[in-house]
Write a structure and sequence with these properties.
about 300 residues; Alpha-Beta Plaits; 7-stranded mixed beta sheet; 11 strands; single chain
Length: about 300
Amino acid sequence: MTLTLPSFAKINWTLEILGKRADGYHELRTLLQTISLADELIFTPTEKKIEIICEHPGVPCDKTNLSYRATKLLSDFTGVEHGVRITIKKRIPVAAGLGGGSSNAAATLIALQKLWGLELAPRDMFTLGSKIGADVPFFFIGGTALGIGRGDEVYPLDDCSAEFLLLVNAGIPVATREVYANLPPELTNPVATAKMPLSLETAYANSAVRRGRPESIWTRLHNDLEIPVLAHHPLLVEIKQRLTKIGARGVLMSGSGSTIFAIFDSEEARSGALSDLSGAGWWCAPARTLSRKRYRQALSTSSA
């Protein structure tokens, strides 16, 4: 039996760095959102070998691939020694702040349970996912969610909706490790994270969502990681300015970058922006938010 699953991207409505933890990681508060842009993953059973196939030059096909790591972790955890060939049809830009690799890993853990006849407890799934990457647990939930800690402690919220998103990527790869290494000192002070409350920005956005006004998040877009990234890549500043000038309702860099997303009020406005920016030779893609219900439906209706 062969399984085919979508592997959706994410954006961050907000991302705040509250300080540096004792374990060396940074304490985050982030509002995450699944969107319609997706890779396609095809899972084919093999004897024992784990094989990754992907034509994208930026995707490793060795043991460093996150889908490979997910497969190995699941095999070691359950004792199942089956192999699998994972073919990745890449549509999400690589190293772009859209969580493509993490999404691939989560989709792999979901697909292999079906393929190998397993049913892991949610706690075990989240534990395995967090060992692979901080964003992986979010992709077990989807929709709109609050991420705290390293971002791997995830809590579902009422869904936000934005039908007319535009993603823009100028082909600038950004290494997450370097972004965090270049944060300003005020964001990296050691903090007593055990007693740390929600930050003001996240608390405001969270309460707005729960009051039934999810669109109010659009006016609170914020990403602390823009500070080091935009300072080193002025082209991203230009992209943000152009999107704002064209009429975007909100513009923000997603995650650690370098993809910029913009919110428009209509298909007409988005189409005009798409035409303008794609003419500059940048990768551009229309997208929309994906609710938790639609996200889970897409993952549960995998084709054989």
